[in-house]
Specification:
There is one protein chain. By secondary structure, the chain is α/β, with parallel strands linked by helices. Helix content is about 45%, strand content about 15%. It has helices at about 10-30, 60-75, 90-105, 120-130, 150-160, 170-175, 185-190, 200-215, 255-285, 310-315, 330-340, 340-355, and strands spanning about 35-40, 80-90, 110-115, 135-140, 165-170, 230-235, 245-250, 325, 360, 380. α9 (about 255-285) packs across α11 and α10 crosses α12. The structure holds S-adenosylmethionine.
Length: about 375
């Protein structure tokens, strides 16, 4: 990933791009084995708040670089996958920069196009561009919610087969406006109902609004496909312990949830490091004194939210003395139900093995890191009730 210095003052963007990059790479390498064409649509492309002339700190460059890397990687596996990428931008000036950037790139086997206009008005054209059957990843990263993240806007994208979406759920913005009477209709369009959060504590309100939004998205079921599933990662304000936004991911494939959560898991530390650095910069700017210790020394201050005892209790409640196989589908259900990270499930299971409470019947020896291999549908059992 690009170096963090390009993201000074917009560290939250760094994390967003790291996630996009990590997830897209895994996704395209998997999908490219089965599909000859892969489409990527950036519905609110920018460039936006870029600190660099080469646009390397924008989702435009990040996505195209990863597409190129995947195309090369797939070629080495004898898969000549055709990639198509569409970038939509409303602002005239940004569109001109976008268009000239795309024209200046030379990416063999990658077809790019820029579209000027408002995303919601262009949806029929975007769907035409996607064609009916191809696999499409839509990135929805707007500056406001109206005509952007509501179900009524996104439904045509969700309804087509083989669509995946990554949506910026601007929580900081939405939590402040949700209780206001003037936004009642907008909130109903986003959440399916007008949320009543007046008596809720901040953490409860956040969980409630996010869950309303995710469940509302899942009301759309494309024909002939599995049930829609969602997962998310939380992006905190760089120098405060408050949520800025959630990146909500929607897919019709259980493997998608597992791969997305694995990518978020790997990036957990990236976000913690970026925040520790941003906080250090803020302290230095305020006190005008350089700090002897590196920002990494403050990593331990970045709280981890999941209580491992809860994860262990969850495992125990899902196991009995009769062996049960756990594969990708079961793991996707667990991740979606709890929002815990894959590494937390692995760590909790490994501890339970050590405590003599559970066993993986398919593991020949104790496996502290990958205690359960969900790709292999391993049989797990509880040793005591
Ligand atoms: C948050 S920025 C995108 C940032 C970009 N995804 C990145 O990570 O580098 C949103 C962009 O959408 C554009 N925009 C705003 N309203 C739009 C609309 N209705 N349709 C298309 N683009 C829009 C803005 O001009 C801005 O460039």
């Amino acid at each position: 990933m690009e170096d963090l210095s390009k993201y000074k003052g917009k560290e939250q963007g760094y994390f967003k791009h790291c996630l996009l990059e990590a997830y897209l790479e895994r996704l395209f390498m998997i999908v490219g084995k089965f599909h000859n064409t892969i489409c990527y649509v950036d519905c609110f492309a920018g460039p936006w708040q870029s600190n660099s002339d080469d646009l390397e700190d924008t989702s435009i460059a990040v996505s195209l670089n990863i597409i190129r890397k995947c195309r090369d990687g797939l070629k080495l596996m004898d898969r000549d996958v055709h990639f198509r990428a569409l970038f939509v931008e409303e602002k005239k000036k940004s569109f001109r920069v976008l268009d000239s950037y795309l024209n200046g790139r030379r990416d063999d086997g990658i077809e790019t196009q820029a579209k000027h206009g408002e995303f919601h008005k262009l949806i029929p054209e975007i769907l035409d561009w996607c064609k009916t059957d191809s696999f499409v990843f839509f990135f929805v990263d707007p500056t406001g919610w109206k005509d952007a993240i509501e179900l009524s806007t996104l439904a045509p994208l969700l309804e087509r087969p083989n669509s995946e979406l990554l949506i910026n759920f601007m929580y900081d913005f939405l939590s402040r406006t949700a209780p206001q009477e003037v936004f009642r209709d907008d909130m109903e369009r986003i959440f399916g109902i007008v949320p009543d959060t007046e008596l809720m504590e901040p953490a409860e309100r956040e969980a409630h609004l996010l869950s309303l939004y995710r469940n509302n998205l899942k009301r759309v079921t494309p024909a002939g496909r599995e049930k829609p599933r969602t997962a998310y990662v939380k992006v905190l304000k760089p120098t405060e312990d408050r949520t800025l936004y959630h990146l909500v991911y929607l897919t019709g494939h259980p493997k998608g949830i597992v791969v997305f959560m694995e990518a978020s898991d790997k990036l957990d530390l990236v976000q913690k490091k970026a925040r520790a650095l941003a906080k250090q910069d803020k302290r230095v700017a305020k006190t005008k004194q350089f700090e002897l210790f590196s920002a990494d020394e403050h990593l331990k201050d970045e709280r981890s939210e999941t209580n491992l005892d809860e994860v262990k209790a969850y495992w125990l409640s899902h196991l009995t003395t009769k062996p049960k196989c756990f594969g990708g589908r079961e793991f996707a259900d667990m991740l979606e139900e709890t929002d815990w990270l894959p590494s937390e499930f692995q760590k909790a299971f490994a501890e339970l093995v050590k405590e003599g409470k559970v066993q993986n019947l398919d593991a020949k020896r104790a496996r502290p890191v990958k205690a359960v291999n969900f790709d292999k549908n391993e049989a797990l059992v509880r040793l005591q009730q």
